[in-house]
Amino acid sequence: MPFLDHLEELRWRIIKSILGIIVGAIITFVFINQIFELLMLPTSKIENLSFQALTPYAMFMLKWGIALVGGLVIAFPVMTYQIWKFVTPGLLENERKYVYPVIIFTFITFFSGVLFAYFVIIPFSLQFFASITVPDVQNNFSINSYVSYVLWILLAAGILFELPVLVLILSAIGLVTPPFMRHYRRHSILFFVILSAFITPPDPISLLLMTVPLILLYEISIFISKIFSRKI
């Protein structure tokens, strides 16, 4: 295919992905109240905690922000499929058979990260912050700041849990090997600590809750690398 035809193909793949995000955002907005309740659920067991909207348009921007993130999540399979359709013509026959397992593995790891953040990281970190009080000062949080914090942690955890998928792909094309990963294990642990410090709130509990799973995922990734090295 000529270069300009490749660009045209890429343009349509991007357009279809954007349409998927728009449709996903609309679907999310239809169920926005139920989704909002799910986002607020981690605060249900925390005492003396209240929220407020600080601007007249706060709830409007909040709901559309949730809809956009929901659109990205819902359109994730569509975007993955469009990427696959774009790169498939350049793959060999023995390489194509691994595409669908990799896509499924991508979904599993992403949503595993989201669930881990929702049920573990967010409740523990909120409990930690809410427990730090001083006399005559109430825990009255901005609703926009809270939802932004929750969505950021959910997406960050989902993306970081894609580490085994990345290692699988790099191992399959020969860029990563088990000896290489074992050699740089200590460097990776230090990197995970620094990365978790940037992503999570500034408290030791959230840092630990994010770093430990990443270290475990790294060990799992070494095993995955051993399986898929030079298999494709």
Quick gist of this model?
The chain has helices at 3-30, 32-40, 58-74, 76-87, 93-96, 99-131, 143-160, 163-172, 178-183, 185-199, 204-228, and strands at residues 49-52, 139-142. The chain is mainly alpha-helical. It has one domain (3-228).
SSE topology sketch:
Layout: H1 3-30, H2 32-40, E1 49-52, H3 58-74, H4 76-87, H5 93-96, H6 99-131, E2 139-142, H7 143-160, H8 163-172, H9 178-183, H10 185-199, H11 204-228
Parallel strand pairs: 1-2
Helix pairs in contact: 1-3, 1-4, 3-7, 6-7, 6-8, 6-11, 8-11, 10-11
Could you say which structural class the secondary elements and strand pairing correspond to? mainly alpha
Q: DSSP strand (E) fraction?
A: under 5%
Question: In order across it, which strands form the biggest sheet?
Answer: 1-2
Share of helix among residues? over 70%
Q: Give me the number of helical elements.
A: 11
Largest sheet: 2 strands, parallel
The CA-CA distance between the termini, in Å, is: 24 Å
The chain-level mean pLDDT equals 83
Poorly predicted regions: none
Gross morphology: flat
